[in-house]
Write a structure and sequence with these properties.
Helix content is 0%, strand content 47%. The protein has 451 residues and is mainly beta.
Length: 451
């Protein structure tokens, strides 16, 4: 199936098998995607439920729309459902190329073949419709514009005003087994986008033995989740292994592993009753001095709230940095480093030059630590670095306290130097005089207001 064509399912008891769909026509030209998905389940009047649909060995490759999409018509204010839906041995590869004219979007994307939106995913399975009993087995999502597998249930709302116009969508018994999601979001050029994950999900969704590889944002991203779980899942090379945030609760991460994350293995905030059991991570770069972090959320007051009533059983390998920051209340921790530590402890020290100057001030930091293999710098202005000898530019005047945490595979040490960097601003001479109108022989008070 090539060019503008797509398959739309609007009735129950449908089987779609062995179909390859692409937006490239027989002449090798890109065509505009006509549907909201190359395989599109659409619930609209007079139908309120589409039930018992199966996609088997269906693949979407090089598409300007979602590979697979399920949604509903809500113009009449009626909540509709997709139920008992199965995706078996299906795949979505290179879906989404951006909208013509947007920053970073270049040829061959034009107004005649651009993506239907800037938010295209591989499998977009849950939006405005209720989703009940959905099974995704042995499916692959690779190199898609946003997320590989994407479920975004929530309130039904007016897209212009953001006001809720209907009941919250229903999510029930959504299961993934043996799926793989890799390299998603890597081509995305939109600076403010934040999905770009292997699996983006929310409520009553359960993943078994799934894999995430090198996704730009998260391997597994849970937003406002409830009663969701991960069992035997892995991430390798994503920026974050797991991210759980924004009023999530009752989430289980059991017998899972994360490796070579570019920032944190676990990033959890504004959540409660999170259970992390037999979790192992290795080769995590670390940031803010920890391999996983609780509570922090980009200094946004609305979401930077603690994780509470949770348990964490974590084994770290290949990095002796602190495993997790242990913030929040009523949490329990069982933390260990894999293997036996070396005899020599880490001793942390550093130098900085120049330590005094006008803004902008470029400072070269030198790590003088012993027995260290990994580092985390905190420059005191909200910026961090894992480099051994970083160059950092201070843009604003002030006195800055710098902290270096250095570690090997089993131990770490911290050095903090208070006010070690002093950055001065340009001198601006000014003064005030009061009063400015006086009789001969009168007095004037001059005040220096220079900076």
């Amino acid at each position: 199936m090539r060019g503008n064509a797509f398959i739309m399912v609007t009735r129950s008891h449908v089987r779609v098998r062995d179909v390859l769909a692409t937006c490239i026509d027989l002449n090798g030209k890109w065509r505009t995607a006509s549907g909201n998905g190359m395989f599109f389940v659409w619930v609209a009047p007079p139908v309120n439920v589409v039930d018992d649909v199966e996609f088997y060995k269906c693949h979407a490759v090089d598409c300007h729309t979602h590979g697979f999409n399920m949604n509903q018509d809500y113009n009449d204010g009626v909540a509709r459902s997709t139920t008992n839906i199965r995706f078996l041995d299906c795949g979505a590869v290179r879906c989404g190329y951006g909208v013509a004219g947007d920053p970073g979007i270049t040829s061959p994307v034009t107004s005649t073949n651009q993506s239907r939106s800037e938010w295209i995913t591989g499998f977009d399975l849950h939006e405005w419709q209720d989703l009940i009993n959905c099974e995704v087995v042995n499916c692959v999502a690779e190199d898609n514009w946003e997320s590989g597998f994407h479920l975004e249930p929530g309130a039904r709302y007016d897209e212009d005003t953001g006001r809720d116009i209907g009941p919250r969508t229903v999510s029930r018994n959504i299961v993934f087994r043996n799926c793989v999601s890799s390299n998603n979001g890597q081509r995305n050029t939109y600076r403010n986008h934040f999905f770009m994950s292997g699996y983006y999900l929310s409520r009553d969704t359960h993943l078994y033995d799934c894999q995430s590889l090198n996704n730009r944002n998260c391997g597994y991203y849970v937003h406002a989740g409830d009663e969701s779980s991960f069992t035997g899942c892995t991430d390798d090379g994503s920026t974050y292994g797991w991210k759980v945030c924004k009023a999530s609760e009752d989430i289980s991460i059991a017998d899972c592993t994360s490796a070579d994350n570019r920032r944190w293995a676990l990033w959890l905030a504004f959540s409660q009753r999170i259970r992390v059991a037999n979790f192992r991570h290795s080769g995590v770069v670390s940031d803010r001095g920890y391999q996983s972090i609780l509570g922090w959320y980009k200094d946004e007051d609305a979401y930077q709230l603690p994780v509470t009533d949770s348990s964490f059983e974590i084994t770290a390998a290949g990095n002796g940095m602190p495993i997790i920051n242990q913030e929040g209340s009523r949490n329990t921790y069982t933390l260990r480093y894999e293997g036996t530590g070396p005899a020599d402890p880490v001793t942390t020290d550093f130098s900085a030059a120049p330590a005094l100057g006008d803004a902008p001030l470029a400072v070269r930091f030198a790590d003088l630590s012993t027995n260290a293999t990994v580092r985390c710098w905190d420059f005191g202005d909200g910026n961090t670095s894992p480099e051994q000898n970083p160059l950092h530019v201070y843009g604003a005047p002030g006195n800055y306290t710098v902290t270096l945490i250095a570690a090997n595979d089993f131990r770490y040490d911290t050095e903090t130097k208070t006010g070690v960097i002093s950055v001065m601003g340009p001198v601006a001479a000014s003064f005030t005089a009061m009063p400015t109108l006086i009789p001969v022989g009168g007095s004037v008070r001059f005040t220096d207001t220079s900076t």
